[in-house]
Design a protein that fits this description.
242 residues; Trna Endonuclease, Chain: A, domain 1; 3-stranded antiparallel sheet; 47% helix; globular
C-alpha cells in the first residue's frame, strides 16, 4: 500500500488563466494537470460546439414555425445569443454530472452507502460493473498529488493495485476516451511515483456509461511516452502563459 503521510497541504486556487494549486513549502503556484492540457487543440470540441449552437437555432426556428412572430433584429439577436450560450450550458451540465458521479464513487469506495439519485443510478451501475471486472484493490481515492520536480499538481481519482503492481485510475463520464486523457493519468502516475518513491506500472482511463450500464476501460500503453508528451504540453503552456 502506498503511504503519502508526508504530503504537504495542497490548496486549489481558481485564476483567470485556469486552476492552480498552492503547495505548502513552495512560493509559486502549480498549474493543474487539466489546465496544462487545455493548451492542446481539440478539433472535435470545436465541431461539437458548432453543432450544438446550430441545433439550438433549429429548435428555436421549429418552435416558431406557423406562429405569428415578427422576425425583428431584436428577435434575431436574441436567437443568436441563446445559440451562443447553449454549448456552455451543456458543457457545465456535463461537468456537474461528472462531479456528482465522482463524489458518489468516492463515497462508495470509502465504504459509505450514499443515497443514489435516480439520474445517477446508471453511471453508478456502470462503475460497479467495472469494479467487478477489474479485480483491482483500490487504496486511495480523490487524492491531490503534485510534482516538485516539474511544478504541476492535480486531483487523481484513485490509486489501486494488482498484486505488487500499482495502478493509477481516472474516471470519465463523457461519450469518448480522448488521446489527451493518457497524458492526464500519466501525469498523476508520475506525481505519485515522485511523492511515494514507488513505481506506478499501469494507468487506466475508465469511461462510465450514463445512459446504459456499460464501461470502457483503456490502459495507457506507454506511461513514459505519455508523460513525455505531458511535459511537452507543460513546456508549451508555460511559454504561452509567459
Amino acid at each position: 500500500m502506498v503511504s503519502l503521510q508526508a504530503t504537504p497541504t495542497i490548496t486549489r486556487i481558481n485564476l483567470p488563466n485556469g486552476r492552480h494549486y498552492q503547495v505548502e513549502g513552495f512560493e509559486e503556484l502549480f498549474p493543474s494537470v487539466t489546465n496544462v492540457l487545455g493548451v492542446i487543440a481539440k478539433p472535435a470540441l470545436v465541431a461539437w460546439a458548432r453543432d450544438t449552437a446550430l441545433e439550438a437555432v433549429r429548435e428555436a426556428l421549429t418552435d416558431h414555425t406557423g406562429m405569428m412572430v415578427a422576425v425583428t433584429p431584436e428577435w434575431v439577436s436574441s436567437l443568436i445569443e441563446e445559440a451562443r450560450a447553449r454549448p456552455d450550458q451543456v458543457r457545465d451540465g456535463a461537468a456537474d454530472f461528472g462531479t456528482q458521479a465522482h463524489v458518489l464513487i468516492d463515497e462508495i469506495l470509502s465504504g459509505e452507502a450514499p443515497e443514489i439519485p435516480p439520474e445517477m443510478s446508471t453511471v453508478v451501475a456502470s462503475f460497479e460493473g467495472w469494479r467487478r471486472y477489474s479485480g483491482l484493490d483500490i487504496h486511495l481515492t480523490e487524492t491531490l498529488v503534485y510534482s516538485a520536480k516539474y511544478r504541476y499538481a492535480g486531483a487523481m481519482d484513485a490509486l489501486a493495485s494488482r498484486g505488487d503492481t500499482l495502478v493509477a485510475l481516472d474516471w470519465k463520464t463523457g461519450n469518448r476516451i480522448y488521446p489527451e486523457f493518457d497524458l492526464q493519468v500519466a501525469a498523476y502516475a508520475k506525481a505519485i511515483e515522485e511523492m511515494s518513491g514507488q513505481r506506478v506500472a499501469e494507468a487506466w482511463i475508465v469511461r462510465l456509461g450514463k445512459r446504459v450500464p456499460e464501461f470502457e476501460a483503456r490502459t495507457v500503453k506507454d506511461l513514459d511516452r505519455a508523460f513525455d508528451a505531458f511535459r511537452a504540453a507543460l513546456f508549451l503552456w508555460r511559454a504561452v502563459q509567459g
